[in-house]
Amino acid sequence: MNKTLTKEQRISIVRYRIESAENTLAEVETHRANGFYNTAVNRLYYACYYAATAILIANGIEVKSHDGVRMNLGKFIVQEGILTPELGRYFSRLFSKRSTGDYDDFFNHSIETVDELMPDAKLFIQTIKDWIELWLKEQEQSAQ
């Protein structure tokens, strides 16, 4: 945490990250349809990663690494009950699958893997998005 963000900066970044999560999730179907399963898993992970960083920033937690995001997501967001423990574990599993697909030689995810991971990615992002919508309303009300 190099600097403290202003309230306005936090709101802007949170909105941007949620939009990035939604846009990245939308990319998955194209990669899946074209047989790029490693890329589809990568995009699933990054869609969830953007949502995870959005909720962390909304809570005043700025991290600079993937490990930091995973650790703080569990430590604060899951512990607070915003995300279920299952979704917290899903994010860690998705990180592992993304790493395998990105860095292991001669490894290719299957369409079944993409199809298995997709519903929880949607739930993960929607759960965070729902919480952020309430948070944004609170921010607007406190500004009045």
CATH class annotation: Mainly Alpha
When the domains are counted, the total is 1
Please describe the biggest sheet, giving its number of strands, its sense, and whether it closes into a barrel: none
Annotated CATH architecture: Up-down Bundle
Which regions contain 5 or more consecutive residues with pLDDT less than 50? none
Percentage of residues in helical conformation: over 70%
CATH topology: Four Helix Bundle (Hemerythrin (Met), subunit A)
Number of helices: 5
Give structural notes.
Belongs to the UPF0332 family. Pfam families: HEPN. Helices cover 79% and strands 0% of the residues. With 144 residues, the protein is mostly helical. The chain has a single domain (7-113), classed as Nucleotidyltransferases  domain 2 (Four Helix Bundle (Hemerythrin (Met), subunit A)). The model has no long low-confidence stretch (mean pLDDT 96).
Summarize the topology.
Elements: H1 7-33, H2 37-58, H3 66-78, H4 85-103, H5 111-143
Helix pairs in contact: 1-2, 1-5, 2-3, 2-4, 2-5, 3-4, 4-5
